Amino acid sequence: MKNRFEKLLITSALLIGGFIVSIPFIWMILSSFKSEREARTMPPTFWPQEFTFEHYINLFQNLNFGTYFTNTLIIVLFAMLGLLFNTMAGYGFAKFQFKGKEAVFIAVLATMMIPAQVSMIPVYLLLNQMGLTNTMSGIILPGLIAAFNIFLIRQFMTTIPNDLIESARIDGAKEFRIFFQIIIPLSKPVLAVQAILTFVGAWNSFLWPLIVANDQALYTLSVGLALLQGQHSSSFALQMAGATVMVIPVLILFIFVQRYIVEGFNTTGIK
Amino acid sequence: MNHKNALTPWLFIGPAVLLLIMFSLLPILVSLLISFTDIDLIGLGNWDMIEFVAFENFIALFQDPLFHRSIFNTLVYVSIGVPLVIVCSLSVALMLNYMSNKLFSFFRVLFYVPSITNIVAIAVVWGFLYNMDVGLFNFILNSLGLQNVPWLEHPFMAKISLIILAVWKGIGINMLIYLAALQSIPRSFYEAADIDGANKLQKLRYITIPSLSYATFFVTVTTLIGWLQFFEEPFVMTGGGPLDGTMSMALFIYERGFQYNEFGYAAAASLILFIFIIVATLIQFTFNKSKEN
Question: Given an 8 Å threshold on Cβ–Cβ distance, is A126 in contact with B26?
Fold first, then answer.
């Protein structure tokens, strides 16, 4: 008896909590299909009286969201190159013995402690010195490497047996062939999680594009959305459409891959 | 045969290490250097115009009322937000851990989703929800017969509103860490407690919570570091207002650096933030050590 009551209690608590947590999403999507006037009426309507796509059309036709979208995709693409560098470094630290390895690895880990606010001013000045401010390279380069990811990948790769690598070497395989044909396939569980999180991180990246890009042609979706909110501060339905464009792709991706993330937390060693 | 080229490991770690030196380690040195200068937009164009000012930036910061304000606000964010995130994510994790079926996996996804959604989009949506006149929250309060709340219009309330939003976003990732930790507690602990006749509350108090101490430590440190850098929420939603009531240290640094182009001054402020972060982390580590002993 007591058990059933408990079950009911916990389920309903989660149900209420879950509903509260999802209110912002529900409201965002519904409002994005309302007319500007309807979005501002009090009392508000729940379901849009007249479904309209005008805000989405407006975003892409007049407000440059197509450009922002492309820029965001470019950043995502290069973030995957960054993931490759992180993976290579993880492998280097996991499976090679070389002089100064400990010191270099500690230096890599130490960079985790540096907050973005500390590096943003000097990085901007450095990029300026290299002539990279207001360029795509300037937006991409500072965020390419993440020490925490190197650490997690390294942790996973230390569990790969050395014999496997040695015997491939004896068979005459080149180092990079070993890396791409043996190490990467074996590291799928950790790399899947990393790829998803890298995608999400790049898709959501805000600070570097905000600082480095002056030109609207280089804006990403998040910077463009912040600009939109500033310029159309009372057009709520339009803002909600912009937010929906940002959120929905990640949401859809996440629904497909969420299992890997949840399981990944058990395999990547945070316990 | 087995001879390995000494260069090989460097080929693998090289790209990452070079980029980290360029964009993480070198910047710290640059930051240290320029915090003792008066570099601004003119100095950036012509290095001859940069002057060494010793500790002037730091002295000015200690006298800058807006900087004081930003430190105070950041401490408010941290001292309310961090405990709230920990309590909320732990309770959600405990409830989710109660059963495993389709419905509960769905809930797990639901609570996680806010933490992967874009912070700007979230801030835009919540700005609408918080709107004084046409926002959903005030409408709900009104229908319950309550007064309008000036969510973003009152300096203290605005801080609370930003905290609510950031807690909502912060639950997901920490909940997952707690769930992983909960699932790694050996079942035999609870079986032994059952034999001793322990009730549910005792099991929670004497087995579950102590077993989670490492997860709690990890969550506390990462959340603390994150909240000390509170930036996007006030940047998008309030711009630091009203009456600088939501100005955080990170936003102060950003505004000084990129709106007023006072790079030297902003770099000095960022180093103070860095010291805050290091001190907070060290306190956590010593606290954790003494608890283990």
Answer: yes
Mean of pLDDT over chain B? 87
Instruction: Give the Å distances, CA to CA, from B80 to A84, A227, B114, B162.
Output: 39, 30, 20, 11
Q: In chain B, where are the structural domains located?
A: 58-292
Sorted by sequence, the CB contacts under 8 Å of residue B49 that are 6+ apart come out as: B42, B43
For chain A, report the end-to-end CA distance as a whole number of angstroms: 34
Report the chain A residue with the minimal C-alpha distance to residue B251. A117
State which fold the B58-292 domain adopts: MetI-like fold (1.10.3720)
Q: Determine whether the interchain pair B111/A21 forms a contact, defined as Cβ–Cβ distance below 8 Å.
A: yes
> Partners of B52 in the beta sheet?
B37
* Nearest of B248, B263, B233 to residue B161 by alpha carbon: B233
Q: At what angle do helices B119-129 and B155-183 cross, to 10 degrees?
A: 130
Answer whether A222 sits within 8 Å of B118, measured CB to CB: yes
In this complex, how many residue pairs, one in chain A and one in chain B, have their CB atoms less than 8 Å apart?
277
B154 CB-near residues (< 8 Å, 6+ apart): B242, B245
Q: What average pLDDT values come out for chain A (271 residues) when binned by 10 residues?
A: 77 89 89 81 79 84 88 94 94 90 90 86 91 91 90 89 89 88 88 88 89 89 89 84 90 81 57 36
CA distance A157 to A97: 14
CA angle B56, B42, B59 (to 5 degrees): 10
The closest of A224, A204, A206, A84 to A144, measured between CA atoms, is A84
Q: Which residues of A touch B119 (CB under 8 A)?
A: 204, 206, 222
Using the Cβ of B131 and the Cβ atoms of chain A, whether some distance falls under 8 Å is answered with yes
Residue range A56-267, CATH number: 1.10.3720.10
Average pLDDT, integer, range B117-131: 88
Residues 6 or more apart whose CB falls under 8 angstroms from that of A171 comprise none
Per mean pLDDT, which of A30-34, A195-199, B249-253, B280-284 is the most reliable?
B249-253
Asked if B129 has any chain A CB less than 8 Å from its own CB, the reply is yes
Q: Work out the percent of chain B whose per-residue pLDDT is above 70.
A: 98
Q: Is B117 on the interface with A (CB under 8 A)?
A: yes
CB-closest option in A23, A25, A271 to B180: A271
Write out pLDDT tens, residues B262-279.
Answer: 898 999 999 999 999 999
Q: Residue A270's pLDDT is what?
A: 44
A247 in contact with B, Cβ within 8 Å: yes
B146 part of contact set with chain A, CB < 8 Å: no
Smallest CA–CA distance, residue B9 to chain A, in Å, is: 5
**How much is the ipTM here?**
0.84
Residue ranges of domains in chain A: 56-267
